[in-house]
Amino acid sequence: MTTLRFLILLIFGILISIHDIRTRKIPNASLGIFAIASLAIYLRAPGQILSALLSATIVAILLLPVLFFRRDSESGIGGGDIKLIIVLTLLLGKGGALIAALIVALFVAGFQIGLLSLIRRRFTRTLAFAPALFLGALLAVN
């Protein structure tokens, strides 16, 4: 099942990340298909689906307020990023892998911000966060 998770992450990671880099948006249709593929994994381990759904629900409840407290719609974490984190939670299952993935994603995003700031000589207001999230998830798959 780990190999299947890795392949799903790799395929959707590349497709969604390319779109996020180009447009700074994550399409709902892609997230929906990614969620269905993530749920399909549990057909081989039906006993784990409730745990994954519960984890995704908890993450959704914790992250939803972030959308309401954003002051500027042009910066910060967007709705697509939050939905992506929820689907990644569904795919990764229990919290340990998710925490590892988010820690790696934050480091990668920080590095990306620093590198772009050096290259452009100014701080960028937007960041394609999907590549960092997928890289973190790929490294956390066990």
Task: Describe what you observe in this structure.
This protein is mostly helical. It has one domain (2-140). Helices cover 75% and strands 0% of the residues. It contains 6 helices and no strands. Helix 2 (28-40) packs parallel to helix 4 (79-92). The chain is globular and about 50 Å long. The model has no long low-confidence stretch (mean pLDDT 82).
Summarize the structure.
Helices cover 75% and strands 0% of the residues. The protein has helices at 2-23, 28-40, 49-68, 79-92, 95-120, 130-140.
Give the SSE layout.
Layout: H1 2-23, H2 28-40, H3 49-68, H4 79-92, H5 95-120, H6 130-140
Helix pairs in contact: 1-2, 1-6, 2-4, 3-4, 4-6, 5-6
Give me the secondary-structure category. mainly alpha
Q: What integer is the average pLDDT? A: 82
**What's the SSE pattern?**
HHHHHH
Biggest sheet architecture? none
Which regions are unreliable across 5 or more consecutive residues at pLDDT < 50? Answer: none
User: Measured on Cα atoms, how large is the radius of gyration?
Assistant: 15 Å
